[in-house]
Amino acid sequence: MRFKRSSLLTKLLVLVLVVYATVTLVTLQSQVNEKQAQAEALQSTIDATQQENLRLEQAINALGTDEGVEAVARQKLGLVAKGEIIFYDVGN
Predict the structure, then answer these.
(1) What does the alpha-carbon distance between residue 18 and residue 22 come to, in Å, rounded to a whole number?
(2) Domain residue spans of the chain
(3) Nearest CA to 76 among 87, 89, 63, 61?
(4) Helix, strand or coil for residue 2?
């Protein structure tokens, strides 16, 4: 069995297909890298949001205690306990 010599057109077609496959693979790899970077950024946002949710849950749970109610009354409303005296620093 003898093989025929491939024509110039066949060689050119194979070359074009190889170049096309290479360009496609490089493009896809860059897209994969970009999507991985986006996924990492989203994961860090998710982690930060979960930490904030945990902090808020703890703050909400603290409001159900006497100490939590007292802390809110002091910080947000400026209330004081009976017999306490507040001094304000106006020297600044």
Answers:
(1) 6
(2) 8-75
(3) 63
(4) coil
**Whole-number pLDDT of residue 28:** 97
| pTM value > 0.70 | no
Q: Can you give the pLDDT at residue 81?
A: 84
Rg (CA), the chain: 34
User: CA distances (Å), 66 to each of 63, 70, 73, in order?
Assistant: 8, 6, 11
Instruction: For 8-43, give the DSSP string.
Output: HHHHHHHHHHHHHHHHHHHHHHHHHHHHHHHHHHHH
Q: Are 63 and 72 in contact, with CB atoms under 8 Å apart? A: yes
Q: pLDDT for 23-65, tens place per residue?
A: 999 999 999 999 999 999 999 999 999 999 999 998 888 888 8
Report the distance separating Cα 14 and Cα 9, nearest Å.
9
Provide the token pair at 38: 């986006």
What average pLDDT is seen over the chain? 89
